[in-house]
């Protein structure tokens, strides 16, 4: 009988101690401004690669399963498909630039979106330079190593291309 009481007391004490253990402290909240700055830094390097027409470097800014949604072309998913798309587009492209209006990082610090405007000059079928302008939306995903890669990128033109003035 005494043995049962001692066992019951020990079991109760063990359960109490387990129940009284504190939960681990929550993970520190990410510094959203610092994460947005990392995205802007990556974005600046991405634009530099775009202006240099370095298709492999441009594709490297995308996540392994990232997708580029270019107007008038099928979506390209994966770095190799994106590199191929960029190589094709670059043949006619004279220039490309964009300006970020907004970067918003989710509270968890694992995903973000960027909006802004873009301008480009491309040669038409006759080799005549045509300029376009529009808006873009880019979704960034934070990688395991802390870097940011493009998950989805899309833009649309505000009007049909017009001759360069």
Describe the overall structure:
With 165 residues, this protein is of the alpha+beta class. It has one domain (30-155): Roll (Nuclear Transport Factor 2, Chain: A). It is built from four helices and seven strands; from the N terminus they run αααββαβββββ. Strands 1, 2, 3, 4, 5, 6 and 7 form a seven-stranded mixed sheet that branches. It is elongated and about 100 Å long. The N and C termini lie far apart (100 Å). The mean pLDDT is 91.
Describe the secondary structure blueprint for this structure.
Elements: H1 2-20, H2 32-51, H3 55-60, E1 62-69, E2 76-77, H4 79-90, E3 93-105, E4 111-123, E5 129-142, E6 148-157, E7 162-163
Parallel strand pairs: 1-6
Antiparallel strand pairs: 1-2, 3-4, 4-5, 5-6, 5-7
Gyration radius from CA atoms, angstroms? 26 Å
CATH topology term: Nuclear Transport Factor 2, Chain: A
- Percentage of residues assigned to helices: 25-40%
Shape: elongated
Could you tell me how far the N terminus lies from the C terminus, measured between alpha carbons in angstroms? 100 Å
- In CATH's first tier, which class applies? Alpha Beta
Class from secondary-structure proportions:
alpha+beta
Unreliable runs, pLDDT <50, ≥5 residues?
none
CATH-level-2 architecture: Roll
In brief, what are we looking at here?
By secondary structure, the protein is an alpha+beta fold. It is 35% helix and 38% strand. Strands 1, 2, 3, 4, 5, 6 and 7 form a seven-stranded mixed β-sheet that branches.
């Amino acid at each position: 009988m005494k043995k049962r009481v001692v066992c019951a007391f020990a079991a109760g004490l063990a359960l109490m101690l387990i129940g009284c253990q504190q939960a681990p402290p929550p993970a520190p909240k990410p510094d959203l401004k610092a994460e947005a700055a990392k995205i802007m830094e990556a974005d600046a390097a991405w634009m530099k690669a775009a202006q240099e027409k370095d298709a492999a470097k441009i594709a490297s800014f995308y996540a392994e399963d990232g997708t580029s949604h270019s107007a008038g072309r099928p979506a390209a998913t994966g770095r190799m498909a994106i590199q191929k798309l960029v190589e094709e587009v670059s043949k006619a492209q004279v220039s490309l630039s964009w300006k970020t209006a907004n970067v918003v990082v989710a509270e968890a610090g694992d995903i973000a979106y960027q909006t802004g405007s873009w301008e480009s000059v491309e040669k038409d079928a006759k080799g005549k330079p045509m300029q376009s302008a529009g808006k873009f939306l880019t979704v960034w995903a934070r990688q395991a190593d802390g870097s940011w890669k493009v998950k989805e990128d899309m833009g649309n033109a505000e009007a049909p291309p017009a001759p360069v003035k």
